[in-house]
Amino acid sequence: MAKVKTTFFCQNCGTQYSKWQGQCTACKEWNIIAEELIQKPEKSDWKTPEKASTKRLSKPLLINEIDTAQEARLNTQDHEFNRVLGGGLVPGSLTLLGGEPGIGKSTLLLQIALKLPYKTLYVSGEESQKQIKMRAERINPNSSNCYILTETKTQNIFRQIEELEPDIVVVDSIQTLHSDYIESSSGSISQIKECTTELIKFAKETATPVILIGHITKDGNIAGPKILEHMVDTVLQFEGDRNHVFRILRANKNRFGSTNELGIYEMQGSGLREVTNPSEILISEKDEALSGNAIAATLEGMRPLMIEVQALVSTAVYGTPQRSATGFNAKRLNMLLAVLEKRAGFRLGAKDVFLNITGGITVDDPAIDLAVVAAILSSNEDEALQSDFCFAAEVGLSGEIRPVQRVEQRILEAEKLGFSTIFVSKYNKISLKNTVIKIQLISKIEDLVDFIV
Ligand code: TYD
Ligand code: MG
User: Fold this and answer.
1) Does residue 99 share a domain with residue 2?
2) Are 249 and 240 in contact (CB under 8 A)?
3) Any known ligand binding at 86?
4) What is the pLDDT of residue 356?
5) Could you tell me the distance, in angstroms and rounded to a whole number, from the CA of residue 163 to the centre of ligand 2?
6) For a designed S-S bond to 8, which of 17, 194, 277, 348 qualifies (C-beta 3.0 to 4.6 A apart)?
7) Where does the record place the RecA family profile domain (predicted)?
8) 315 and 361 both lie in a single domain
9) Residue 116: which domain range?
10) What average pLDDT does range 126-137 have in this prediction?
């Protein structure tokens, strides 16, 4: 084997070093120097040279002449996954799936691999073939297309790929892979970069889609260099609260589709179930209306989602009142409380306020504000809201009810689920006709107080 040449580069300013050191002397950044391959041996290609295709020279083409028909996507048989990808897997694309440990990344991809009608190779560096088989038995025991390989060395993986010629490759996880050409251990910046480069080359040359699982760090970023996210075509994030059954799949980056789409799954004993109508599950069943509950018509990506907000307002036992929010921004809660205090005359300063979004999901949509305010008012008065009311508006600092985007879609979802009244901002332009649901337009927080207290 020809000699491999590596050297060390600062990932920030690009200064070259002959050996590793903790701090870059040029830009003073710490822990930024990583080993990189500068000259690969001839065999570093993912294929052995005799089998490697002769390089095609690429020529400039008029944009009108570029044929997109060949971009036919592979249907993964999983509607939620397809939707998030923008319609299926694009041949030759690299998809990175990130998420917290134990959230269900391996389960999701194994489940998809088992369902696929194509020849699939599931490479695992994390679990043994037996372990994977045991998991597969829980999910879908009859699959005739899925091959399992437990291997971490990329050169060996490519050897098996050449033999098997799979249509789709899944790698669990990129952090366990290592390439012979780099000295450093698996999971280091330079290993991740090199292995990903080799996989990209393989994917592009053979038009095989590759899906990688990526670990995330404490602060929620994908472990390894940021450049990893630039290298791949699609970055998916699998998230949820491990103690709840719902899992949300979203695209953080997608070269072949929008990043607005969202996939929702429910973790069951037999794998992940696609949730096609999430609103029905997120709203808890109850016989009588309880105080402190309000329903928000939110949008997650492009999908309307009815979410239940629960608030508990009680007299503060200690000097400083407690404020706690699960699934909702605590700063925003404090802001809404201040608005309520000022505009609606509620003396919340002496009260503890707890807020919870049911289902263990986190909501960013500002349209949930009005439901939060309604839930707090309802708990404060110990007066239940009518259970067929729902809310969709943002609340401003001066207590004004502000319009939200795509309000009509929210109204239609609320109507579909049988709500009688939806509270929205007066400033929203609504051109819906013949709706059964009553659209209650309000402009100030005081208007809401009149309605519900
Ligand atoms: P896993 O896919 O191993 O997570 P990751 O690869 O993201 O680390 O998922 C692990 C969790 O999922 C585990 O705690 C058990 C649970 N699980 C189920 O509830 N039902 C199932 O059918 C399977 C396979 C796993
Ligand atoms: Mg795993």
Assistant:
1) no
2) no
3) no
4) 93
5) 26
6) 17
7) 70-216
8) yes
9) 75-274
10) 92
